[in-house]
Amino acid sequence: MRKHIPNTITCCNLxxxxxxxxxxxxxxxxxxxxxxxxxxxFDFFDGFTARLLRVSSPIGKELDSLADCITFGFAPATxxxxxxxxxxxxxxxxxxxxxxxxAAFSALRLAKFNLDERQALGFIGLPTPACALFWAxxxxxxxxxxxxxxxxxxxxxxxxxxxxxxxxxxxWMLVSEIPMFALKFKHYAWQGNALKYSFVLLxxxxxxxxxxxxxxxxxxxxxxxxxxTCRKK
Length: 233
Known about the structure:
This protein is mainly α.
């Protein structure tokens, strides 16, 4: 019985992704964002539970990638598609569909992750959950901020160009060779974990100051710290 527990949690992640996609197609940024976050929680606990119960399996690994592809690939791409439709869709009806390139690169990143044995203790390239949280947070911010909404409406072509450029940058980072740290602990002492603890504390501060919109700068902070750490090494 216990061998099915991690896969059940993974399926909960996949269901969250499907619900997030539904919210995104109905232009409900907050609903999509909340289910992406809930999916990320399930994504954390399925691996944790598998290691705790010692029931890891090849099928669990493949199922996890499939769930992640929906929750952290298709869902944020759909949310970006919805935002681009609002910004530029009336002028260029086909342009918003470029958002689904993000889903394709997320799938490519997940396939690469499954085959890359270098990613046992860290990541090579931007993890899909981080990319998804960045875009979900950005879309919520663009939808809820009156000043940003006015700017998007007044400068639709420039705004769309900026969003697409950021998306293409995200796609490149997903499959890049940039080493990035993971929040995995061999021990809990400060020495050896200073970077991880500092990141967690700064992230908590950003969430207190910016609310849910703090996820986007948290991801930017994560990338910057990873790059700086890589350079030091």
